[in-house]
Amino acid sequence: MKRILLIGAQGSGKSTQAKLLSEFLGVPVVSTGEVFRNLAASESDEGKMIKAILDAGKLVDDKITSEIVKKRLDEDDCQNGFIMDGYPRNLEQVNYFDPQFDKVFYLNVSDEEIIKRLSVRGREDDTPELIKTRLDIYSEVTVPLLKHYQKQGVLVEIDGMGQVEKIHQDLRSNFL
Ligand code: AMP
Q: Dihedral of the CA atoms 76, 78, 81, 87 (nearest 10)?
């Protein structure tokens, strides 16, 4: 079983690294951001509710998020493992549903570098205001997660400032 979490701020490169690690390990990436953006595109009540939250740069409700993730991880393609990108965002979510990660990688990138990278990404929700809202939420609620996984002994810190390929090799070296 390879139950892996990549944790890092917006623009830390976690989606890119998740994809590369997914190809190397042969397990799927489960990205909550992607799941929510897909749901937000639907005309259902749930879709409209999620779109409003995403447009405001806020987090989706912890219980709803946990239920959506739990269902996703029950699917066939996740039975040998998965690379999680975006869940949990806080300890409340872990209390609702704990994916039992074997390894948690923290991609450490400076704020300065993050702002530089996000301004060239050009996604619809990457306005300076929304970037700032998300970084504020991140530092408030995500840092306790790092402590939680450090205590569990599954946390591995990765220097996320270098080249994509070098960071990928650093991640891979944990599976040799
Ligand atoms: P991301 O692609 O990770 O930047 O996520 C985009 C948006 O999806 C976030 O700004 C949140 O509104 C929502 N989202 C993603 N993951 C979570 C989560 N674990 N809990 C709550 N909201 C989430």
A: -160
| 108-131 per-position pLDDT tens digit | 988 778 878 887 877 787 877 788
- Write the CA distances from 162 to 6, 12, 102, 149, integer angstroms: 17, 11, 25, 24
pLDDT in tens, 18-39: 999 999 999 999 999 999 999 9
Domains recognised in the chain with CATH numbers: 2-175 (3.40.50.300)
Q: Which residues line ligand 1 (CB under 6 A)?
A: 10, 32-33, 36, 53-54, 58-60, 65, 86-89, 93, 134
With CA atoms as reference, report the closest residue to 39 among 56, 54, 58: 54
| Distance (Å, whole) CA 92 – CA 105 | 20
